[in-house]
Amino acid sequence: MDRNPSPPRPSCDQEDEEDLAGGDCIGSTVYSKHWLFGVLCGLIQIVTPESDKSSSDDDEQQIELAEEMENEICRVWDMSMDEDVALFLQEFKAADIFMGVLAKSKCPRLREICVGILGNMPCFQEICVSISSYEDRGQVLLQCLCDSDPPTLLETSRLLLTCLSQTEVASVWVERIRGHPSIYTSVCFIMSSSTNVDLLVKVGEVVDKLFDLNEKLMLEWIRKGTPQLPDQPQEDSEEQQVFSIVPCVLEGAKQVR
């Protein structure tokens, strides 16, 4: 029996284009690996400026974020909510790049976006366990809760709440927070002085989750008082202000209402 003739073989150029199109997609998404690599390389260049530039030029560069780069990294932020993209970022150790930004960059907007991406990635259990297993990463992220930028504080709080909600790693984060005294001070300061409702709500959720997970930490924080922040002038009063978690949380609750 005669069979139908086979369709003509595609040209070499057609085959290359098809292979490239299929191989460039991240998982089952339509997002481009090549484009994402380009954005990540741009991030690396931001935090590792050329050595022949003056330090003052570097500082100014790090504080300002170009509009094109902001738009691109915000796209990555949106994309990181997809599990395939998050796994791809994890596979190629993009978290190390974001951590490098947090350690070196002075640009508040860039820091906020990078924490936001890192906050999306742990929504998936495998990635959360991996990110949480690195002590140095944990310390860098906890230090972000001492930041002065409200949007960065909000994204950091969201990230911590996500990790604390994963049973496999919750205890790891509780112990890190217990061993990081400045977290208590920062939480009290935010709750007692911030007027950002979204931030107050998210930090309140973090505190509630911590107290629910660890009674010992709850009792320590309730009984604890710390001196005022180092950058606050002491000459304003004869005695240093002492933060106490209960009145600070109550003050935050007043702002939320």
Give an overview of the whole structure.
The structure is a single chain. This protein has 257 residues and is an all-alpha fold. Helix content is 68%, strand content 2%. It has helices spanning 12-23, 33-47, 55-63, 67-79, 83-91, 94-104, 108-120, 125-132, 135-143, 150-164, 170-178, 181-193, 197-213, 215-223, 245-256; strands spanning 226-227, 242-243. A two-stranded antiparallel sheet has the order 1-2. The longest helix has 17 residues, at 197-213. Belongs to the SAAL1 family.
Distinctive features:
68% helix, 257 residues, 2 strands, Leucine-rich Repeat Variant, two-stranded antiparallel ribbon, 15 helices, 2% strand, mainly alpha, disordered N terminus, globular
The best one-word shape is globular
Mean pLDDT: 84
Rg from alpha-carbon coordinates: 23 Å
Describe the sheet with the most strands: 2 strands, antiparallel
The helix/strand class is mainly alpha
Widest sheet, order of strands:
1-2
Which CATH class of the largest domain applies here? Mainly Alpha
Q: Helicity range of the residues?
A: 55-70%
Q: Give the total of beta strands.
A: 2
* Count of domain modules: 2
Catalogue the unreliable spans.
Answer: 1-20
Distance between the termini: 82 Å
